[in-house]
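Progress note, project year one: complex with 2-oxoglutaric acid.
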Amino acid sequence: MHDDVRDRFLKDGFLFPVKFLTADESKFYGEKYREYVKLYGSVGKSGGSHKRVRGNRIFRLHLIAKWAAELVRHPNLIDAVKKVLDTDTVMIWSSDITCKPSSSTECFGWHQDEAYALLGPDKKLCTAWIALTDSNITNGCVRFIRGSNNLGQLAHKSQVRTPNENLVLGQVVADQTLVEKLSTEVVNCELYAGEASLHAWRTIHSSRPNQSDKDRVGLAIRYMAGEVEPVYKPTVVKELVTLAAGSYEGDDFEIEDVPTGEYGKPEWALHKRSMDREWERRKKSKEKGLLPSQQYENSKNSTNNNQHKDNKEIS
Ligand SMILES: O=C(O)CCC(=O)C(=O)O
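Model obtained:
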């Protein structure tokens, strides 16, 4: 059974639906999320009455509320993660709320999560996407390319938002022809609220705009096994991570405390410490030119320079 689940995950690059919550639990977590938005959400600069959480409040919800800390440690979910990562130690590198408001043009371009994290080995990391509302074709569910996790690490380029493509993330797979070639392997990950999907670190995925009249909301949790390390050593910045199962013997990460309350001073302080560290890591990685999109630009420039040099020599 254990091997069967992992084999399928390694072959396809995803697993769903993972039905890990009871109906009551699903209702409880949905209500908790809506309460969080009521308390900490805000309307956008352009006005309107639609509230959503923004900025740092999108991230690491599991540090600011006991209910979220329990959700990301749900035994059924952790069991599934242990199977696909083949590990007893499960840590959480980050978590983020992905809310697509009703009738919004927001979408995600085709990407591998690996392009955003600079962590490895890839088979020891995965994303769990928990549906806090139903997620389907109409409201822009996540889409996976079957088997793309076995294509290796792909170059990513930066892509800016345009009126036609309101991209939430700034990096997409550079070789869009490859993505088009694989269009027959695209699988829509439709989920009911309370279900989850798991996808591999190198699975190419994206999602389309929400064309429904209700928000589509997920909580994406980045899980990793105990042996995961930053790709670049010495570590750019030692990040804070959550221990969800087992024990951590390494020295690359610092383990975060577990929140005991809900949105109190100690919880927000815990959250701020981790977020500050994360932003420092993002800033320093960018300064050092380590982002995949920066490396892609550099490799393009050096190819151009070499071509230029070769031309010169020829003439
Ligand atoms: O929520 C979405 O539509 C996409 C999320 C995503 O790309 C991710 O969680 O890795």
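The pocket of 2-oxoglutaric acid is lined by residues 98, 108, 113, 127, 129, 142, 205, 207, 218, 220 (CB under 6 Å).
The chain has one domain: 2-288.
No further modelling is planned for this target in the current period.
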